[in-house]
Design brief:
With about 850 residues, the chain is α+β, with helices and mostly antiparallel strands. The protein has four domains: about 210 residues, no CATH class; about 180 residues, no CATH class; about 210 residues, no CATH class; about 170 residues, no CATH class. It is about 55% helix and about 15% strand. It has 27 helices and 22 strands. The strands form three sheets. Strands 1, 3, 4, 5, 6, 7, 8, 9, 11 and 12 form a ten-stranded mixed beta sheet that branches. Strands 13, 14, 15, 16, 17, 18, 19, 20, 21 and 22 form a ten-stranded mixed beta sheet that branches. Strands 2-10 form a two-stranded antiparallel ribbon. A hairpin with a 2-residue loop joins strand 18 and strand 19. Helix 2 crosses helix 10. The protein is elongated, with a radius of gyration of 34 Å. The protein starts with a helix and ends with a helix. About 0% of the residues have low confidence.
């Protein structure tokens, strides 16, 4: 029989004998690969669709001119039209407008409208042209006509010839659906109308949001862009399509990278399950491998055999993982859309596309971690001495060879060092490496720690009870665990790996959730929040309407807020400017200030304060005391950073300033939102009735603070739904690992059980010993897993999250959840050991002690 045939025969024999353990290992690898691949597929599909939709709005332009204040004076248009090198120019007004309806539903109730010059757009963005009825070809220039994409028509439940209502400030506007935008991408909700009509109807007179440029052939884009930015000044920036794609990618990069890292955590746990399965298989088959050596197998043959068995597991698991991943991705897009709960790509329903390169990468990752979990058992098999293995039943485990203290100390020291390093391109690369090293170092210490712990327990039990009074079962359990720590550590490490990762994620998620809840309590102190749709460049409430609201006797206090979007860096997403009344005596009464701050009396008379979110510190370097320039009004204004506040609502940055300073600098007296406190005797129903009875009551978005908090926490839970799934999977994989480890160990100890039976130990006593071993090992694994998981959670909370999302949080412990999972794992491990033991002690006692291998 030649070597390949013999190798295949050995592989099939091992699979037939240990089919359940092999299936468990394959499932673990498949789940890890499936999670990572599905996350990649959904994110790639959503980003590609979102990017393609953005490209369709930009048309065939080479460059685009934007303002840092989102809208700018259209008088710049003739200047650009006469600029040397410009072949075509296309002005665009783009804005979002609310649709009347249920604003408390939590759904996106806004429609994107583009105002275009149909003659200019024909040569630059032909996909945006509406298709009017045959008898009304000039509707493209009509002031009451609007064209809707098919997705927008379906969403609004309208057809050509119907009317659509829009909220503009405190007024309601009706427009006629004159036709469709037939070239819009599937699922893209947009509306198009004449730019002059859009400026007039929506109060954007004299304003544009961007100007698209098509350059003459031979013009160097980068040189032209530099010259144009110098000509326009600091208020404007010029971008290319590729820069817009990079900006879109940066919005969701941290979120999708973190999800993929969590998926790799599940894959790592699966790799350890493969390691434990192969390690115990090698230990059980020592005599078999020794006989093969005697019959002519070389060390290299044995190593290749064990590695081949692992590769088969990896190939099957990775293929199954790719198939499962595609299925998970299809279900996620069908039921949750393309944003995985992150809200970065709202309204996107992309089509899945499998990239062969991406599939190959995830297949290679799954196969690679499987091989990694097989190498050490293969080395152990290669080192088997035939004569010793045939004569002795010694079954030292492979984990003993990697449990030297210095390697664990090196890993833990490196983890501590890497945890102090800054992010790489905005990603916590070193933080994740620190977590991996911390986990590896903790696992490497397991045999030593288990030997020390159970030896101490045996010593303490002997000292506690006089000689002869220590129960035989207790003595057997402690002696076994103290003297064979390598085999015990395989099952122990399986519990440790899964439980510590579950603990880390549970602590991180709960800490984040409680921190968000506390933050919402601070930033939403009012009873009601009343919002009106923006009216062009102005806020929804004009001064007369604000005065009327303040005179209503049912309200004890009203604060007015003005929100505005700014672009400080064209490579990054927009930031939010919030102008509001801020307590001058102590800003902490208004804002969730963290760290030191500058009191108003410490500033000179001409300096104005501004308070920035944590993201502004990381992204723009805005530290306390720094003088900064941001666009307010028609030019850049100087401010002093007076403090840093915590903001979980805007990942890419926000700044707050006194409403009086904003109004003085911009001459904009309108506001977007009114925070309303009710008189003590006024109920919520009374307040709603009063606001709805206003002449413009139907246009208002009225929300209770408690409703906002509940909705925000629902969004939070939806965003972390994948994390919750990964926690459950970590527990399941851990329990599968315990089952596989105990099953293999019990079967490899059949001789030991046979000898115990010959010495007079009954079958029920043996089962009690096994259940006690399982319970003690799981208890120790849970204890150590809690400590290691707590350390990993510190890295997640204080390093990974601030570096990924630019916010900090407080530490909270989910004791109830942790005790519940610990109890489940303890009971499951004991039952697993008992069930595995019943099979091991069910055979013939005489055969168990007589068989050689």
């Amino acid at each position: 029989m030649n070597a390949p045939i013999l190798s295949g025969w050995l592989l099939l024999g091992e699979w037939r004998a240990r089919f359940l353990q092999a299936i468990v290992a394959v499932m673990a690898i498949a789940i890890g690969v499936a999670l990572g691949f599905s996350i990649h597929l959904v994110n790639a599909a959503a980003f590609n669709e979102f990017s393609a939709a953005s490209k369709s709005l930009s048309g065939q332009s080479d460059l685009q001119v934007h303002s840092k204040q989102k809208y700018f004076d259209e008088l710049i248009y003739p200047r650009l039209a006469q600029f040397e090198g410009v072949r075509l120019i296309n002005p665009v007004l783009e804005f979002m407008v609310p649709i009347p309806g249920d604003h408390n539903s939590g759904n996106d109730q806004r429609l994107r409208i583009l105002g275009i010059d149909m003659f200019r757009a024909a040569g630059m963005s032909p996909d945006l042209l509406g298709v009017p009825a045959e008898d009304r070809l000039m509707d493209g220039l009509s002031d009451d006509a609007i064209f809707l994409s098919p997705a927008a028509m379906e969403w609004l439940h309208v057809k050509q010839g119907d009317t659509v209502q829009f909220n503009v400030g405190t007024q309601t506007l009706e427009l006629r659906v004159a036709g469709g935008v037939t070239r819009a991408r599937a699922g893209q909700r947009i509306a198009v109308m004449d730019i002059g009509a859009a400026q007039w109807r929506f109060n954007y007179l004299g304003l544009l949001s961007r100007i698209e440029l098509k350059l003459d052939d031979g013009v160097h884009h980068e040189a032209f862009k530099t010259e144009l930015e110098k000509e326009l000044g600091a208020q404007f920036f010029v971008t290319e399509i590729v820069e817009q794609e990079a900006r879109l990618a940066s919005m969701s990069r941290a979120y999708r990278v973190n999800l993929n890292m969590l998926a790799l955590v599940a894959l790592f746990t699966g790799a350890f399950l493969v390691f434990s399965t192969q390690a115990l298989s090698v230990a059980r088959r020592r005599s078999q491998f020794a006989l093969l050596r005697v019959l002519g197998f070389t060390r290299q043959h044995l190593m290749r055999q064990v590695v081949a068995e692992g590769i088969v597991l990896g190939v099957i698991g990775s293929f199954c993982g790719l198939a499962l991943g595609y299925g998970f991705a299809a279900l996620a897009i069908r039921f949750f859309g393309g944003d995985l709960g992150s809200s970065f790509f709202p309204g996107i329903q992309p089509d899945l596309y499998i990239s062969p390169a991406a599939a190959l990468v995830y297949f290679a990752v799954g196969l690679g971690v499987t091989i990694l979990g097989t190498v050490l058992p293969a080395r152990d098999a290669m080192r088997i001495a035939p004569a010793v293995a045939l004569k002795s039943s010694q079954e030292n485990n492979v984990i003993d060879s990697v449990s030297v203290p210095w390697s664990a100390i090196v890993c833990l020291s490196l983890a501590l060092l890497l945890a102090q390093l800054p992010p790489v391109y905005g990603l916590p690369v070193f933080g994740y490496l620190a977590i991996a090293l911390l986990l590896i170092g903790g696992l490497a210490l397991m045999p030593r720690f288990a030997a020390w712990f159970f030896s101490f327990a045996l010593y303490w039990a002997n000292r506690r009870f006089s000689c002869g009074k220590l129960h035989a079962t207790t003595l057997m359990v402690l002696a076994r665990l103290a003297n064979v720590p390598g085999q015990a550590s395989v099952a122990l490490s399986g519990v440790l790996a899964s439980f510590c990762l579950m603990v880390a994620m549970a602590i991180m998620v709960l800490s984040f959730r409680v921190s968000v809840d506390n933050w919402l309590e601070h930033v939403l102190p009012a009873d009601l929040y009343v919002r009106a749709a923006d009216s062009g460049k102005q806020g929804g409430f004009l001064p007369d309407e604000q005065k009327f609201l303040t005179e209503l006797p049912e309200f004890s206090r009203i604060d007015f807020l003005r929100y505005q979007q700014l672009v400080l860096d064209p490579r990054r997403p927009e930031i939010t400017l919030i102008a509001r009344p801020i307590d001058s005596a102590d800003p902490r009464n208004t804002l969730p200030i963290i760290g030191e701050f500058i009191a108003p009396e410490e500033l000179s008379g001409h300096e104005r304060s501004i308070w920035v979110s944590e993201a502004m510190v990381d992204l723009y370097g805005y530290s306390v005391g720094k003088q900064i320039m941001i666009p307010v009004g028609n030019r850049l204004q100087s401010f002093i950073v007076a403090g840093i506040w915590r903001d979980y609502g805007r990942q890419f940055g926000a700044v707050q300033m006194q409403l009086s300073d904003y109004q003085e600098l911009s001459n904009d007296m309108s506001i977007n939102t009114a925070a309303v406190w009710l008189q003590s005797k006024v109920t919520m129903d009374n307040a709603y009735d009063i606001l709805h009875q206003l002449p413009y009551g139907d246009t208002l978005e009225i929300t209770q603070s408690q409703t906002i908090r509940d909705t925000s926490l629902k969004i939070f839970d939806r965003s972390f739904a994948v994390t919750y799934l990964l926690e459950i999977i970590a527990v399941i994989i851990g329990l599968l690992g315990v089952a596989a480890s105990f099953s293999l160990q019990m079967l490899s100890r059949s001789k030991e059980f046979g000898m115990l039976r010959h010495l007079g130990i009954t079958r029920s006593q043996v089962l009690v010993v096994l259940a006690a071993e399982g319970g003690l090992l799981t208890t120790l694994g849970v204890m150590l897993g809690f400590v290691l998981g707590w350390c990993i959670s510190l890295i997640l909370i204080f390093i990974v999250n601030p570096q990924s999302f630019h916010w900090t949080m407080q530490l909270y412990m989910p004791w109830d959840w942790l005790f519940l999972i610990a109890g489940v794992m303890l009971i499951s491990a004991s039952i697993t050991a008992l069930v595995a033991g019943r099979r091991a002690v069910s055979g013939s006692v005489i055969r168990a002690v007589r068989e050689d291998w």
